[in-house]
Design goal:
It is a single chain. This protein has about 130 residues and is α/β, with parallel strands linked by helices. Helix content is about 25%, strand content about 15%. The chain has one domain: Rossmann fold, CATH 3.40.50.1000. It has a three-stranded parallel sheet with strand order 3-4-5. It is globular, with a radius of gyration of 16 Å.
Length: about 130
C-alpha cells in the first residue's frame, strides 16, 4: 500500500504502484494515444507521479510548496506564472496546444481498429 499526504490535509491510500502517473500511462497505451498528444497539469503532491512520467506537464503557480520542491528534477514540467485554470491555459500555449484554445477540432486518430474506438477524436497537438 502507498500513502501520501497532499494539500497538507488529504491522505491518499492507494494500492502499491498505483497512482496518477502509472494509471495515465496505462490508459494512454490502452487507448493507443501517443504521449506527445497529452498534457498533464496539477497543483498538489498527489500529482507528482503524473509529472514523473515525463509527459508534457504544467505545474500551476499556486502549487503546494512540497510539489514545487520537486520541480528541478522534472524537466518536462513547465511552471506556470498563473494560478489554476489560467496556469493550465498558459501551459497549453507553452507546449504548442494553442489550436485547442482557438476552437479548432482535434484531428481523428488513424489506425484504430478496436470496437468502440474507431473514429474517436483525441485532443492534442500534431506529433512532431
Amino acid at each position: 500500500m502507498d500513502c501520501l499526504v497532499s494539500g497538507c490535509r488529504y491522505l491518499d491510500v492507494l494500492p502499491a504502484g498505483v497512482n496518477k502517473g502509472s494509471t495515465l500511462l496505462a490508459l494512454l497505451e490502452w487507448l493507443e494515444v501517443a504521449p506527445e498528444r497529452v498534457l498533464t497539469a496539477g497543483d498538489s503532491l498527489n500529482d507528482l507521479a503524473m509529472f514523473e512520467t515525463g509527459l508534457a506537464s504544467v505545474m500551476v503557480a499556486n502549487a503546494e510548496p512540497d510539489l514545487v520542491a520537486h520541480l528541478p528534477r522534472l524537466p518536462a514540467t513547465y511552471q506556470a506564472q498563473a494560478e489554476g485554470c489560467q496556469g493550465i491555459v498558459e501551459g497549453l500555449h507553452h507546449f504548442g496546444f494553442s489550436a485547442l484554445l482557438a476552437g479548432r477540432l482535434p484531428k481523428r486518430v488513424a489506425g484504430r481498429d478496436r470496437p468502440g474506438r474507431d473514429g474517436g477524436l483525441v485532443c492534442g497537438r500534431e506529433p512532431p
